């Protein structure tokens, strides 16, 4: 008899990177208060704005995750109330520049129009970095087919002008998705277009292991996406930094007669420079090993995340839903969701460093060690069994997970 793929596995020792991430406690911060602002910012941090499933509760907002980067914030799903959560958090709202929507269920997208309206108010004095002239600020929104129609309808019917933003909606499509377009979506393609919205399609590609959408590559980070099994089209996203150049060996450069100057920058970027003697120094001769870029996978609602296994391989943090416990697996899968054990199995297949569980059913209490009560602690313990590691945290609203960079990997 074949075993279920999310069978229990023995616990193992944690790695060096997990040791750096172990400061994230299993009992995460109080959901009613912002965590201490002195928590160091690493330039690559996952911040949970909403961790509940379906609707708001006293302790949990519906789904919303913010990826804090060095100079900007990226939002992954925006449920109702996400704007208020952003304001209450350590995030500077005006720095939010990109939005990634997993699917078009209301508990993942109803807060998006409101956040965009607030960004419009914050950018009245925005100036183009190149021309230094006042201009609409570019905002990018990524998600499934139908996202443009949703925003177009919301802004058009509410007479929202958005004079200070230029929003490009990138819809992830495949031939199959376009062939199955609903009658409503076909009708909406002929609807008047809001002047602040622009539509683009990101077409699917195959990497030999399945369908992948190459969503974004800005020279610093790469974003890829793959589909998840849900009741509607749903995506998971992977964000990965480019490797960081190694440090220059200053002693070696001085010995070879190259004083500090602009040529150091050329070498650090991987180039070659010429000495006054005519000798050529290549970067590989005087730089240390590159630091591996940090990597995070943020998945939407899913009853099967196997299409993410390849592109999310070796991620530092996996954000995965755990709507129910495994004794309710049939109900979870029927509704397009995962159990905690299924989330742990996905983390194992991706070789994730840390698994952050989210999207909890309201039947699970925020925290309880009582063996007779249902709580997110029990979901975390269930996920540990199938993950085979102890690095599992049940997320709560405002939990911050700083992702450090190791110098040599």
UniProtKB/TrEMBL annotation:
GO terms for cellular component: nucleus. Its cofactor is Zn(2+). InterPro entries: RibonucZ/Hydroxyglut_hydro (IPR036866), RNase_Z/BN (IPR013471). CDD domains: RNaseZ_ZiPD-like_MBL-fold. The keyword Zinc applies. Gene3D superfamilies: Ribonuclease Z/Hydroxyacylglutathione hydrolase-like. The keyword Metal-binding applies. Keywords: Endonuclease, Hydrolase, Metal-binding, Nuclease, tRNA processing, Zinc. GO terms for molecular function: 3'-tRNA processing endoribonuclease activity; metal ion binding. Homodimer. HAMAP family: RNase_Z_BN. This is Zinc phosphodiesterase ELAC protein 1. It comes from Phytophthora nicotianae.
């Amino acid at each position: 008899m074949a075993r279920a793929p999310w069978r229990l596995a023995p616990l193992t020792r944690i790695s060096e990177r997990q040791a750096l991430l172990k400061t994230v406690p299993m009992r995460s911060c109080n959901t009613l208060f912002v965590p201490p602002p002195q928590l160091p910012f690493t330039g690559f941090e996952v911040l949970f704005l909403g961790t509940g499933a379906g609707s708001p509760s006293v302790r949990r907002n519906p789904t919303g995750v913010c990826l804090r980067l060095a100079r900007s914030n990226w939002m992954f799903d925006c449920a109702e109330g996400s704007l208020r959560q952003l304001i209450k958090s350590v995030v500077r709202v005006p720095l939010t520049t990109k939005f990634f929507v997993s699917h078009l269920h209301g508990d993942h997208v109803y807060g998006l129009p409101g956040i965009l309206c607030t960004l419009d108010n914050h950018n009245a004095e925005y100036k183009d970095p190149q021309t230094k002239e006042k201009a609409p600020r570019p905002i990018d929104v990524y998600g499934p087919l139908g996202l443009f129609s949703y925003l177009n309808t919301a802004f058009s019917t509410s007479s929202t002008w958005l004079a200070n933003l230029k929003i490009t909606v990138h819809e992830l499509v495949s031939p199959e998705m376009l062939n199955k377009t609903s009658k409503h979506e076909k009708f909406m393609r002929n609807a008047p277009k809001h002047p602040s919205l622009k539509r683009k399609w990101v077409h699917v590609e195959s990497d030999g292991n399945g369908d992948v959408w190459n969503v974004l590559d800005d020279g610093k980070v790469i974003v890829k996406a793959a589909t998840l099994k849900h009741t509607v089209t749903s995506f998971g996203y992977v964000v990965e930094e480019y490797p960081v150049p190694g440090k220059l060996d200053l002693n070696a450069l001085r010995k070879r007669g190259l004083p500090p100057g602009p040529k150091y920058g050329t070498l650090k970027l991987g180039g070659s420079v010429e000495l006054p003697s005519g000798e050529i120094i290549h970067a590989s001769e005087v730089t240390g090993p590159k630091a591996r870029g940090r990597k995070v996978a943020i998945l939407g609602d899913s009853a099967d995340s196997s299409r993410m296994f390849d592109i999310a391989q070796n991620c530092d943090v996996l954000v995965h839903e755990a709507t129910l416990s495994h004794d309710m697996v049939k109900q979870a899968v029927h509704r397009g969701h995962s159990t905690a054990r299924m989330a742990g199995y996905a983390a194992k297949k991706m070789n994730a460093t840390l698994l952050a569980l989210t999207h909890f059913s309201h039947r699970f209490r925020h925290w309880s060690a009582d063996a007779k009560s249902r709580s997110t602690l029990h979901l975390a313990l269930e996920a540990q069994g199938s993950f085979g590691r102890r690095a599992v945290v049940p997320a709560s609203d405002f939990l911050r997970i700083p992702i450090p960079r190791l110098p040599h990997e």
